[in-house]
Queue: 4 jobs
Job 1
Amino acid sequence: MSAVKAAAIIVAAGRGERAGGGDFPKQFKPLLGRPILAWSIRAFAADPRFGKIIVVTKREWFDQVSALAEGIDVTLVEGGPTRTDSVRNGLESSANGSEVEFVFIHDAARPGLDREVLDGLFAALEVFPAAIPVLRVADALLRDHSSGSQSEIDREGLCRVQTPQAFHLTPIIAAFKSLPAGASHVDDAAIARAAGLAVGLAPGHERLMKVTHPGDFAEMEARMGLRPAIGNGFDVHEFEPGDHVILCGVKIPYAAKLKGHSDADAGFHALTDALLGAISAGDIGDHFPPTEEKWRGAPSDLFLAHARQLVEARGGRISNVDLTIICEAPKVKPFREQMRAETARVLGLKSDQVGIKATTTEGLGFTGRREGLAALASACVLLPGGD
């Protein structure tokens, strides 16, 4: 499937009262240090197949959603009185002013979305006009008739249904338009079936459980099962005539500049490789070949942001990074806090999750001769355990 143009609709207009929502709905409550809604936004944003991310929520929460999106371009749409009305509003926005072929409708209360589930849904959409992630029922099932009486239920073919539910855009819009007034369906796939659309099944995942009750937060954290993964990065650049160097996105005055195809930011290059190493995703040259003209003079925050997106696409998050600049000159310490702040901004971290140091080689080697500088980085990434 090439040149995929998909939109994501994240429904986040409810107050989550069963989860103790009230004035602080569950989609804004923290899960592993990040608001629940932010997990889904980042999962879609990290997948290049999605050109549009729509969050359907209450107008009074627009500013809050924009803040937790942290620089990700999201379209905010006001929700309706029912979930069906909210999804309908999101579908109208999906079709407005963009060439969208597929739409994925997702509940904000399911933060465990990852690339594997999305891949399965896209594969199913190659065959069916609609697709949903499911888990086959493995446990024995009973219907309780009270007073100690039960009857068995045949579990053959039974599935637990999750989101996101994925559709070809045009037929699902038509299905919603054909809904009789006041019609009630259990989910969006049921609306598709009522309109005669075949629905394909794709593998779901236990991490996609819906956070509904207060106790679900601890269970969700356990299901996501984040484990630490460590990566290292190293980069070297020589000096050439100029009047400044760029390190961690900060311009530092100096009697030379760093030579390179991009902006030669050795700090960000080393950090990029450290993050890529933590998720076994190759190195910076694999993703941004120096032979490609489009990267000439490019700011290296693009490379670092790309590495962050790859981490988040795997359902992970960056715990902390540490960088050492090795040089006799320029003096890094006066600019260290700016460098930490800029690194934190690009990676979506707090400054206390970013360590930056500088050292010399006591006059030894190429850095000692002031022919260039080097950067050594480490990154700790928390990834799903793969259960």
Job 2
Amino acid sequence: MSSPKRLHPAAMIFTVITSIKQLVYALIPIIILFSNDGFFNYVILGIIGIAILLIGHSILSWLRYTYIVEGDQLRIEQGVIIRTNRTISKNRIQSIDLTQGIIHRLFGLTKVQIETAGSDRSVDAALSAVTFEEGQYLHNELKHKNETSAVGEDSGEKPGLATKAISNKRLLIAGSTSGSFGVILSLVALAFSELESFIPETVYTSTTRWLSSQAMEFLIVVAFVLFILLWGLGILGIVIKYGKFTITRYENELFITRGLLEKKQMTIPIKRIQAVSIKETLIRQPLGFATLSVEIAGGEQENKKVTETLLFPLLKKSDVPAFLSEILPEYQNMPDSYSQVPKRGLIYYLLRTTIIPILALIGVAIALPEWIILPIIVVLVSIALGIAQYRTASYHLTESQLTLRLRLLSKETVMLKTKRIQAVEKSQHILHRKQDLANMKFSVLNNFGGKHYLVNELALADSDKIVDWYSYRKKEF
């Protein structure tokens, strides 16, 4: 690349869309507030003015944004009023991801997301729209010289050491057991609550009267059809998001491709993996299925509420060891037995899960005794959850790896390498000291600075053993 290049003109569209997303939450309350007011016309004019400014700003931003690869560096110049010159060394780049949304695919484009060491967004870069060929070139050109490239047929890379893909049947099972039904139902309820004020009173009243006049059998059928519809939408969402999911192991990295509408190509350097998690939800555990994910140090996440990166959408639990031995042999040592929390720790697990339901039960018993059956059911479920958390909590220790089993609702098995654990913390309150118990917290790096895993009420001898293992063992960095 001998001279600076600009992004594809479609980048202006993405700039406008991003700006609108940032303004929409501020504009909607204003529109609702003045919807029945004479001032509403001025609000519309203000929105039109903002739209014109956004379009103008996107054009200027596109004109003022250039990039060039020179030697071992990527240089980016950007800024409408204040010019910023950013230089990213190839040696600092941790991963390069290519993402194709619907608009990208219409124009044959891709987004190039470059992540450097650490989680400081200011030293990362995102080229929002370049041709797919250009994205492949940048990916291969900016990779470390001694590392294998994962993109491009003509780049001369070595073949992957192992590749795994999810079948359509397994993808449908993943969608059916994902629990996304509840998320979609919550979104529908939220949307209805927001739109309820716009429904005319006569329509709302007549609809309510009509529903109350229907037979119970009809309402049950309607509820069942609605459930099936939302469940189907949840399955469709998973299929669209993870369709054609494949993971390939190269010498020093993992390469993941996924997505039907938005196609994403993601690179995970092995050295950035801090922990491996095997999660079994309440639905999937009885069926013998699990989801694999990893915690990665540094970088950005699309969903700020989720820190882990999906490694494989759905596997038979019995197939996990074979999968890890091929794709991630560094974490293939899955234990067969675990050291459990002692029986004297059970009471603490029960207290944590039942204290609030019991207080609610007392309140209902006093104020609404006719509804007492509902809090009783909640208390019984809470007791079962406390017992399940107690029976799950355990650990296994080897020379270089600590494996934990935890449960909040889902059962999770976490594998931690000694050299990846940032801190181990042991804590005791007065009752713990009398019963020789201790709580343990293990911390690793992730995209937001740290992820913590807790195992409560371990035997004091076990907690001391873990602390000694971590403190005195010579670590390899």
Job 3
Amino acid sequence: MKLQRVIIAAAVLLLIATGIVSAQNLLTNNPHAQRARQLRQQSEAAFNEGEFQRSIELAQESEQESRLAREWADRMAWAYRANGARNRANERLTAVRRVDAATNYPEEYNNAVAFFEEGQRLFTEERYEPSFNAFRNVLTALEGVRAVAGPAVTPTGVLPRYYTVRRIPERRDSFWRIAEYDFVYGDPWQWRRLYEVNRHMLQDPDNPDLIQPGMVFEIPSIRGERREGVWQPPR
């Protein structure tokens, strides 16, 4: 009986020690790490009170929480990487839109947009590692697209295909107000057409109000009108 208690005690100490080592490398706000520490403390208290079986059970639960904490930390690291890759992919898409890549490099551009939309979907589903890879594929797809300095100007007599969101203090740009411009649709009620085509460019695709200056939105044709280049404000 005494030998059995010694073996149990040794097993408890091993589990507790493992939990301590694991917790040191986890994020401080990790809910599983916090739970693991609580269970470890309870296990130590039970051990000191001679409740060895209870101590083992608590130590095992602590180790399980530590494993979940490591998985959680790894998932959050991939979320951080995926978000960074998304920002870089979005910046690259914005740059090539300024040279009307959809017209000049249609295959590369369409592939890049498809990868970006896939990345957004995977990110929303919290599948961060494949999301990261999809956003990286955006950059790969656009490697051969040359984003020259300066925007592509709309040819005379042709409606613009792209609009760059502006910072207008007295009249903040929105999908509603952009759709209202004569060179877009001249009808604010067409805002949803703009939103649906460009929602994949938004940080939060489900919130059409969160648009930022510098974003380049595509203006889809609705009456077969020819559109090309990026609209430039009159000087």
Job 4
Amino acid sequence: MMISSHHSGRLLGLYLLFVGSLLLGSCHTHRFASGAPGTARDSMPSAMGADDSIVQRADGNRIAYDWFATRIRVEYSDGKSEIDFTAVVRMRRDSIIWLSLQGPFGIEGARVLISPDTIRAVNHLSNEYAVQPVSSLTRMLPIQASIRELQDFILGYYLHLSGLVPQYRGIEDSLHLLHAESAQLLYRAFLYPQNYTMAKSLLTDKMAGQQMSITFGGYAAEAGHPFSEDRTIGLKLGEQAYTLHLSYSKVRVNEPLDFPFEVSPGMKRSDRIRFE
């Protein structure tokens, strides 16, 4: 990706699009079995408490972390153009998400710092900065974007969305199906029967016409738990469709991190974080 001032506004939009699409992974770890669909009969839960049983088993794959960092290569396409870039991600549980968008040779184009209530972004190429509430991400994502939900998104967990009660719908295409729905949202999560890792998911905002689909592949082990290091995300926002393919490396768990963020003198404040 060649970063230039011509692309700077758009890249910041891609960066923020990416905030809702980051998933945990690593390229340098022991691999689990692929989790490919097989005979599901031995993995079926008992009829009593089936909904809770499946969710608890999915939650059993969560990594116990206070600090997390990774480097992710992102391949982006909107049907008209393609861009590759690298996102460096650092997190402190329930507290901070820090991201750096980089082009060739590690040249940084933008930086984002997300706290529980605020997004701060600097765009080095346009010499602008912006401050927005976390709720502004709902323009890009079909969820009410709290920092905990964003971190769960990044880590690839089953999402516990406010107001949605999961229901177990049995086996579909050799995968366990969890279905949760409200007047506004529809969430369908498909889990491999062997270890209850995520195979694919679909999240739809029925009111806003937004939809996100995710396929999870390349499962590996990190801190004793399985996670996906290779994911494809499809976003549909009205008539516009986006695809992001994510590849991960250099995962660090529970190593203390810093989160540097500065607004340089002379930077202009923008009234909003642009998503286009």
